[in-house]
Amino acid sequence: MNREPDFLEHLRAELSSGRIWLDRAIVLGYAIAAGLFVVGFTLASDWVFGAFLRFHGAWPWAVLLTTPLLTAAIVWLTLRFFPGAGGSGIPQIKAALHATLPEERRFRFASLRLTVAKIGLGAAGFAAGLSIGREGPSVQVAAGVMQHARRWLSPRTTIDGRALLVAGGAAGIAAAFNAPLAGVVFAIEELSGRLEARSSGLIITAIVLAGLVAVSVFGNSSYFGVIRVPRLGWDALGPGLLVTLLSGAAGGLFARLLIASLTGAPGRFNRWRARFPVRFAAACGLAVAVIGLVTGGVTFGAGSEAVKQMLQGHDELTPLNTVLKFVATWLTAWSGVPGGIFAPSLSIGAGIGDAVASLASSDLGPALIAMGMAGFLAAVTQAPLTAFIIVMEMVDGHSMVLSLMAAAMLASLVSRMISRPLYDTLAEHMVRRAVDYSTQPGEATAEVTPAASTTPTR
Question: How far apart are CA 162 and CA 185, in angstroms?
Fold first, then answer.
């Protein structure tokens, strides 16, 4: 029979065991550490990319040598020593959470060792000028820190490894984007599929603490500032719908290309990539360097600065540059370097919105750019709730909630007609490789021999 909770009984239960509070303190400490790691990754990436821009400004043609060499070196190190660090980081955490993956192999996708490697190799990608983001990798960085807490918890603790991974991934998104709501929705929509009552407190606590660490360093301002949006009437319906459909179709095509490229779909280039991954990476790096020179450096890096300029009314990404940013991001991901696609996707979506805005009323520019960002990101990830909340929090666009939500949902629907879910497909591919083969993901090829030991490092 149901009865009201007894406060004193619950209080005695809470105070009866000091070990429970010690476990909680350990988790809180690791949540703060996760935020510090993400902040460190952010500062390192920004500093390194700033150095690259100064280098490119002084010797622009030198990137034709440095970018392919660094890309090849990053891929060699990844395959040789840290095969679980390649790519975005979100598929790895989804793979670690997969029901069919044996628990002893979870550390191939999330560990403190991979966290350190992801930070170093990810920062090196910015030093090469590759078209990558740090937000997806921040998920793996924070999740690797959080799951390490499991070794210090008591054997009878109710905090399991799965909950720690979800909490870490959500905290990584929250700290990287300074978007705590996006962290909660990301945990539900992408990682867990639901928010269980027993783990919800852990997830929210990790998000809050990691977010506070980020806010204490970077301040409590939105990433792209505050956009000025005029009153949206029926005249915005046509341009808004066009932006949404274009971003949905382009995002679906982008996801389909990545799936075909990263899962080893039959083809001459994938056969070459499988046989000579380091040479293939160098070729991709050279192509990215050429694209960067053609666009005057706009396509290098995450593209966040270009988005800020477009929101202020400057045409940083022309339609041609937007297409080239699309290609540069695809080639970067195909090369196999550790790096995310969230920030480049936002810049591509912003370019689509800016192109449509140039055909419509100039007053609608900021609104169409924000809708393009939400639409393209939602189409690539097929996670519309996460996409529109990230954009809303990054531009402080609470006045556009309905418009951003509609754009994200419709663009995601269009994408589903073109491509399978990107992260789910990549995660299943990783799980199959982990289960079916004794070597780690990204196993030996003609050019690379992985480390002799395949024992997971915790």
Answer: 17
